[in-house]
Each structure stands twice: as C-alpha cells, then as structure tokens.
Specification:
heterotrimer; A alpha/beta (158); B alpha/beta (166); C alpha+beta (385); A: alpha/beta; Beta Polymerase, domain 2; five-stranded mixed sheet; two-stranded parallel ribbon; B: 166 residues; alpha/beta; five-stranded parallel sheet; two-stranded antiparallel sheet; elongated
C-alpha cells in the first residue's frame, strides 16, 4: 500500500514519541535529529508497512547558514512509495550516526559526503576520502572553500 | 626532398640518407600507448575502429609504456592522475612523443575555471608535441594530428642542432 | 619439505604449508579497467581475497561547477559525466529543472526525447557489449558494434552537430529540431540493425568459450543488489523485475509497450556475468521496439514554445531519476530562487554499481575480475563525476 509522507510521519511519531521528529511540508520530508537517524533507518527498512529497502541517494549539503545537512532519499521496491529524510548538524560539530550497516549503499555515499562537505559519520567502518586524493586538505563543496595554489608541485589555478 | 635521392637502373640499389630511412621507418610504425582517460578515449577508440582506421598508419595500441613510441593523453588529467602520467612518460623509451588530445589535456578544457582537482593542461607535467583541439575532437581530427606528428618525426635529425620544427 | 606432488597437495590441504597474501595493483592505466580505475587486489595465489577500489582519478568537480554556472550552462557538464549516454544525462537534468519550474513540454519534444534516449541506449549498450567481448578476448564483435554505432552517431550529428557530447536537451525543449529525413534515417537504421543483434549472438553470446568464462562468475544475489543500491542491468540481471521506465514512469514512457528484460540464469546461475550481458543485448532489441512505436505516432509542433526566457526556478528542491543505460541516474537539485543552482548532486549509477565489486569477486581468479568489471559496465566519468 503506497503511503504519503504525512502518513509515514504519523506512523513514525507513534513509534518514536520522544525523538523529536519534525515534518517539513514544503519539500516534503521528515527531519530527524542526528543521534536518532540510525534507529529510524532500521525502523523504516524493517517495518512491514514501510519496507524502504533501497537508498536511492545520500547527499551532503552545505546550507550556507552555519549548518550542514544530509538528505536521504529512500524508495521501496516491493511497495513502491518514496520517502525523504533530512538531518541537520552544526558546521562546527558535524557528527551524526552512520547508516552504513542499514543500507550498504551508504558506505561509499557517506565517504563522498565526508570528502566533499565534511560531516563525520560516527560508526562508519572505513571513513576516508574517496574522490579527492588522500592527502587533500579542506572540503571542496563548502561555500567558503578556497582553491589551493599548489598541490605536490603542480599549479592548480588556470 | 624525397626519400630516394637517386635511383640506379639496377632496381636493387637506391641512394638515400640514413636519417631519411630511419625517420621513414619510424613514422610509419608509431606504436601508441592506450591511455584513454575520459570522453576523448571513446573517440580514440572510434579512430581505431573500422570507420576511421588508424591502423592503416601503422599504429598498434600497446598496453605497456615500455613498448610504445607515442602517448596519446586523451581526456582530463586530474591532479591525482598527473603523477601517474609523469611516471608513465618516464617509463617510455626515447624517441618518445606525446599527443595531447582534446581541450581538457590541452588547457583544462571546460573545467578551467572552477575545477579544483583538474590539471589545467597536461603540458604542466610532460612535454607535448602535438595538440589536437576539440571537445571531443573527431577521429578525423586525431588523424590530422597524427599526420602532423609524422611530419615532426620526418624532420627529426640525430646530427643537426635545429631538429625540424623548434 | 614434501618430495612429491601428492605429498605437497596433502600439506596444503592440511594447512601445514605457510603461504602469504600478495597485493597486486591493477593500476589506473590498464587496458581492461574501462578507464582510470585503480583496483588493489589482495591475492592468495591466484584467487582473490579482497578487492579495494580506489577512485577519484577522474574527479572533475561537476558539483562545484554546477553551483557556479546558470541552469542552462550546467547541461554540457552533465553530458560529460557519463559520456557514453550523454542524451540520457541531459534528459534527467532537464526533467528535474522542468519539474521544479512546473513546465510542460510540447508533445513533439517528448517524442523526440524518447527516440534520442533510446538510440543513445542502443549506442551505449553497443560499446558495453563490444568492450566486454574485447576484455574476454574476442576482438571482432568490438568492430561490428562500433560500425553500427557510427550509424547512430551520424543521425545525432545531422540533428545537433555533435558526435559524442550533444548539449541537446535543454530546459523546456531542445536545442535543434530534427533534420529533414530524420524519421527515414531512424527507420533505416532499425532495419539495418536488427540483423546485427543476431550476428553478435552467433559470434559472442552463445559461444562456448564466452559462456565458460562468464557463466557462474560474479554472482550477485538479488537482496545484496538491492542493499547495495544497484540498478539497471545489474539489478535486472539478478532477477529483480524493476525498470524505472515502467515502474516510476517519466516523460511519455507509459504510452509504449515493451518488455522489461530480466536475467533468468540460462547459462549458469541467476545474476552471473552472462545474465547481465544478455540483459543488455535484449534491451537493445526492446529499444528498437520503442523507437518504432514512437515513429508511428510522431507529431508535428514547435519545439521552442516552452523554453522559458529566463530560467529561475522558485525556491525548492527535487530528486528526479531516469533510467540510464547503466542504471538509475538521479539528480537532486536545490534551488534558492537565483539563476544558479544552490546544489546539484548527481547520483551516478556506476558509482553505486561499482561498490558491490568487492562482494561479488571473493574467491574468483584474476581473469574473472576482468570479466566481472566488464559486466558491471562502469564509466569512470560517472563514478568520479
């Protein structure tokens, strides 16, 4: 049975009453606190009515207002409905739980988010850079990133 | 000056210069290192396919740098890859040539402005002999670049100080 | 120290022989890695214990460029991500921005987009099949596939001027209308192309050597595939009946009638390399069917009437996905109301499909790694973006 975002939100709030889930109507998506994302993910994957077994995309975003965000787009292959979850963390302490063991897709996606935007996923078994070289400094997709002048003797700007 | 300076009546004797024969042999059998990086690699493969056959120029794609004369850098060179390009170039035996194929390896291409990880032109790490422009260049453009390289090889001299085109 | 072969084999079986693991580097420059991919293989003799992929050798900062360019200027950069399926990349991005702005494109534009996307799918699968055969050791199918691909590239060149990277599908329409004689050209191509599929079948797909090298190699169970997020022929080769064009339809795919090709394990196990390869071969034929149906009801119209003068989507975000030849290509576009996107994240199918390679290569030989990598069909431009 295909459920809408509001119905899923009501279903989850009933199961996690203390966690502080919020519903953003404009997007629409469910905003989850950073410390609860792992439990919520396990629930949405294993719940009979939800069955979100396919993580379509995990994106890191620099919100340009002092916070970083992680957006999870989920899809259910047997039931066919979709869900968007968001987690917002402050830029000076960007820690949140990793969902790498819930969906194996998240392994590389979280490494990419760490590499490009800079949030740290606690509990990830192998969090290191994936696209940039291993000795790169800085997180390029942040809005205040400055391109380095030289890298290993090669001039970087044009 | 043609290859054969003088031909005697007895067809088995021809008079030419050592450099002429050596360079002629070299330019007709330039073996290429298959070093396709990005989209230009597909056009390089299309140049080796039957429609635009680069093998009629004597070109053989060899996987190892030790066995080839020309390295066609086809595609974007990133900073991570640049050290490897340099290492492969050093492994080639002389005389060796580099053809830079496509805008990305000529000068950074469409990524020149905001590419923090893109090397703006492969000539920052290895010396380039021929630049083939295009994004991606047609296989015919690569063949034209190849013929220019052949001109360069034809003018190469072991003895003269000014080796062909500067 | 054992003196005879039997004694040595007994020692190995009993675990009395001390062996070490060897780390072998299949470097960024390698004829069979389909681009600049570095695989670190940990080997026990010839058998692979672990595969550690190292990416990033083609990281061209697409997402940083997308934030600096205007919405239409991003389209050529999307071409260059998966350079073998440029039309489909454009399609996904154009759809995402159109949905953000609420634009409806004319019927003619939809039909042309579908025909171009399916032709591009055939071209991309031809490269995949040809290079897979070449990796296994068969050179001739590569030449046949590239010969047919040249016909498709001729059609593209006559329409929009480019052979490989087109910048064709714009937000709200197309850059050029199709040339005169487009329908005749496409029908002629389909007529010439159907016998090629049979040729490739005879030469390659049912060849005993090919089957022995690809059957039962790299078996991907369906639940592992879904957990790793695989999509496209990788998922369908494992027996999961899921195709975005039918199950989450976009554009006008719901008007056409075609079969979703699923691997059945005819040569070995369900989900092996042969299954994934055959899914691609069957999909080419289904694409021909879709193109023929589209040509029958090809409407007239003006392709530029829905292209907006200024592209400034309202504040919002959207995730759109299309069926690339390699799988599900997703674009997550966040707009802040200005003419530059705030964030564009491209979810490349090859990036996700490649992550499963460690799991499916355990216990195989080095030569099988080449076969597995060929059947995953990656394009490094999409893996690294």
């Amino acid at each position: 049975m295909i459920m809408e975002h509001k119905e899923i939100f009501d279903h989850l709030t009933a199961l996690f009453p203390e966690t502080g889930l919020e519903f953003d109507e404009d997007v629409p998506c469910i905003v989850v606190p950073p410390a609860a994302i792992r439990d919520v993910s396990l629930q949405v994957r294993d719940d009979e009515m939800l069955q979100f077994d396919f993580l379509m995309c995990l994106s890191g975003v620099d919100n340009a207002d002092g916070t970083l965000g992680v957006v999870y787009h989920l899809h259910s292959v047997p039931l066919g409905h979709k869900l968007t979850l968001k987690v917002i963390v402050p830029a000076d302490n960007p820690h949140l739980q990793s969902v790498e063991r819930v969906w194996r897709t998240a392994d590389w996606h979280e490494r990419e988010a760490y590499d490009l935007v800079g949030m740290v996923f606690d509990g990830h078994r192998d969090l290191r850079r994936i696209l940039n070289p291993y000795d790169w400094e800085g997180h390029p997709l942040r809005k205040d990133y400055e391109v380095p002048e030289f890298y290993n003797g090669m001039k970087v700007p044009y | 000056m043609g290859l054969l300076d003088k031909q005697f009546d007895d067809g088995n004797i021809v008079l030419t210069s050592v450099e002429g024969v050596l360079n002629w042999a070299r330019l007709c059998s330039l073996w290429q290192m298959s070093f396709g990086l990005a989209c230009c690699a597909i056009e390089m493969m299309a140049a080796s396919a039957s429609h635009n056959d680069i093998m009629r120029f004597g070109v053989l794609p060899r996987p190892s740098p030790r066995q080839c004369d020309v390295m066609i850098v086809a595609g974007t060179v990133t900073l991570k890859m640049a050290t490897r390009v340099k290492r492969l170039y050093e492994q080639m035996a002389e005389p060796r040539y580099v053809v830079s194929m496509g805008s990305c390896s000529n000068c950074g291409g469409p990524y020149w402005e905001h590419g923090y990880h893109v090397l703006k032109g492969v000539d920052r790490v290895v010396p380039v002999d021929v630049y083939v422009p295009g994004c991606p260049p047609r296989p015919e453009a690569l063949l034209e670049g190849w013929m220019r390289l052949q001109e360069k090889v034809r003018d190469f001299s072991l003895v003269k100080k000014n080796n062909g085109t500067a | 120290m054992s003196e005879t072969l039997e004694a040595l084999q007994e020692d190995i079986a009993a675990g009395r022989l001390q062996t070490d693991e060897l780390v072998l580097n299949m470097g960024p420059q390698h004829p069979s890695t389909h681009g600049v991919l570095r695989l670190e293989l940990v080997l026990d003799g010839e058998a692979v214990v672990k595969v550690i992929p190292h990416l990033g050798y083609l990281h061209r900062c697409f997402e940083k460029h997308a934030e600096a360019m205007t919405y239409p200027q991003v389209i050529p950069y999307t071409d260059r991500m998966d350079y073998l399926a440029a039309m489909n990349n454009n399609h996904g991005y154009a759809l995402a921005v159109e949905r953000l702005m609420g634009i409806e494109v004319p019927e003619r534009v939809e039909y042309i987009r579908i025909i171009m996307a399916e032709l591009q799918r055939i071209a991309s699968h031809l490269v995949a099949i040809g290079t897979f055969g070449m990796d296994i050791g068969a050179f001739t199918p590569f030449l046949y596939c590239f010969r047919d691909r040249e016909y498709i590239l001729d059609i593209f060149e006559r329409t929009c001027g480019a052979r490989l990277l087109y910048n064709y599908m714009w937000v709200g329409g197309l850059s050029h209308d199709v040339h005169d004689g487009f329908e005749k050209d496409v029908a002629e191509f389909i007529r010439k192309f159907r016998p090629t599929i049979k040729e490739v079948n005879d030469l390659l797909n049912y060849n005993k050597i090919f089957i022995e090298r690809t059957a039962n190699v790299g078996v991907l169970p369906p639940d592992v595939a879904i957990s790793y997020g695989c999509s496209g022929p990788m998922l369908r080769g494992s027996g999961v009946d899921f195709d975005l064009r039918r199950d989450d339809p976009y554009s006008i795919y719901d008007r056409f009638d075609w079969e979703v090709c699923v691997g059945k394990g005819d040569a070995g196990t369900v989900g092996d390399c042969w299954d994934r390869h055959m899914v691609r071969v069957w999909e080419m034929e289904q694409s021909c069917n879709i193109i023929e149906q589209a040509l029958e009801s090809f409407p007239e119209g003006d392709i530029t009437e829905a292209i907006p003068k200024r592209i400034r989507p309202p504040k919002g975000e959207i995730y759109t996905r299309v069926e690339n030849p390699r799988g599900e290509l997703g674009y997550y576009v966040i707009s802040d109301g200005s003419q530059n996107p705030f964030r564009v994240k491209a979810r490349g199918p090859s990036f996700v499909n490649l992550s499963v390679i460690d799991e499916i290569s355990r216990g195989h030989l080095i030569a099988d790694i080449v076969a597995i990598l060929g059947s995953v069909d990656i394009v490094l431009g999409e893996v690294d973006r």
